[in-house]
Amino acid sequence: MLNFLKQSRRFVNSAEPVCIVLGNESCDLDSAVCAVTLAYHYQQQNVVSSHTTRNFLPVLNIPRCDYALKTEVNYVFQQHAIGDEHLTFRDDLQEDYLTRSEFIFVDHHVSPFATRCLEVFDHRTFDEKAQLSNVCKLHIELVGSCATLIAEEVLKSMLTPEAKATDSETLFTLLRSTIVLDTVNFSESANRATPKDFEICGKLEELLRKLPNSKPLTERTKLFDALVAARADISSLTSVQLLRKDLKILSNGDDSVNIAIPGFPMLVQQFIEKPDAANAVKAFAEETNSAIVILMGMLVENGQVQRDLGLIDFKCNELCKIIGEKLVQSTEPALCLQHYENCNFLNGSFYKMGNIKATRKHVLPLVKQLLDQMPK
């Protein structure tokens, strides 16, 4: 795996045809691991992405300077001696290189490069506005982790007679770790895991135990606790960095209105108690040119999940009110928002999320729908 990543760096901005395996812009563990493992697997197995290339380049969809914010990604990759010098980031690539490359999307399917995309692996509901080409192969299924879909593809092709030798231990371990984290260790209360997540994770564990000279598997609970601790290790991050750690930005049709939706590995109520939180959110809104900022927090303690949400207006008061009403009244899904009456942070509206199964993936389409309905 490490050798592949080192060698893949030679494709960066090269004249050689290449297929970029691109993760999503939040670059969480699921996105990063899926990009790296699928590119590695396809390169090792000589999968032909089209008539033009057998070269695959995994790309993390963030600027290189933001990699330090992805504490759980750093932690997991470092377990396999993978450092940032072995990885390729979005701002490493020149514009002309992007416009002539082919793409595979993992953990997302809406992108400016959609018309050049040959294949998609995603666990979101399909967006009809994705603008993918007719030849794009879709693997879209509402499982708990996109890594489950990548692992399914890996396992399916590795069991064929044509399969080539590969670094199975690193490959399987990365995918297993991601599935365990994304499904909240198969927690019943979180309800993120599907039967396929259970099945695929079990197969990975079975194969890991059978590998020659295999190490004892870290028990799932210990693995999950270590991953949650790494994700929550924000001791070295400033409040502004925390806002950028896990960020999604939505825009309307002409990009005149942005809504930033940062996610925290802590509750919003904890974040806004920081002495510099107000200044950080103001600076963040200005930096991202965001009319509205929606803060989303999650805290996992003793296997129990808590979620909350904050809605702060900077430039679009009427739209902000409409979004708040939509989120409160939503039934598909029901977020079960409970208003914090005495929270006066930046004149925002703050809520406890009674439905802990609802994530940012459920909030995004609700907000995007209202954004798209804005008069142009």
Automatic annotation (TrEMBL):
Coiled coil: none annotated. It comes from the Eukaryota. GO terms for cellular component: cytoplasm. Residues 224-371 form the DHHA2 domain. One of its GO terms (molecular function) is exopolyphosphatase activity. InterPro entries: DHH_sf, DHHA2, DHHA2_dom_sf. Belongs to the PPase class C family. Prune subfamily. This is Protein prune. It comes from Bactrocera latifrons (Malaysian fruit fly).
